[in-house]
Specification:
alpha/beta, 15% strand, 47% helix, 261 residues, single chain, Rossmann fold
Length: 261
Amino acid sequence: MTFRNVLITGASSGLGRGLTMYYANAGATVFAVARRETELRALATELSGAGRIVPVIVDVTNLDAQVAAIRAAENSAGGALDLVIANAGSNWSSPARKIDWTRVRDVFQLNATAACVTISAALPAMCARGSGTVVAMASLAAFRGLPAIAAYSASKAALHTFMESLRVDLRGTGVRALTIYPGFVKSELTARHNGPMPFLMEADRATEIMARGIARGRPMITFPWPMATAIRLVGALPRSIYEPLASAGTKRKRHPKSAEW
């Protein structure tokens, strides 16, 4: 697939930054959405390909502002975008014994509500045109309730189910709805993570896997494969076995802002 006009949220760092650079260097016009203006504008100075990066300074949890930005990008693209990636997200710990309801609210607003609005705002123009791709950045944590990150696991599980429903509805329309489920990837967040990070992957390698999966139209893009396989096996365990085993994880210390899954 060739994507000429792309919009990516959470573009200033991590996986979003990698994807922004990838598509811009491949020749696309990338509308890079994020809150941090300095980081966004710095992206353009690193661009070596034939495309361009258009900084869009928006907090995606401001839903009206986000939708307005998507509409402006669509107009600039001639009516509809080719690819929209809802990547913006964060992982705050939420251990049940010390749970903070405001943190739970914030995680859901960013990881679930804002992401679903990103996808929903882009779909009508794509459906009217009969082509386009929407992508949601979920997580391997979506497949099971993991210790100390209840809000994160649940918000990504909500995104997982949302995208699955869209795929059912979009069959035959020419519009694709894809979901990415990364494990641990080197980023600003993982650099501050205190706990173990099995199969930690370099950001460039993660970007290659994601871009290849998107180009092939894979409905579910999971990586790294050893971690994805382990999570799938854990997901098959009955509750009576899983919950006692997983409870041991609540004893591990976690940084308040943990790693990207």
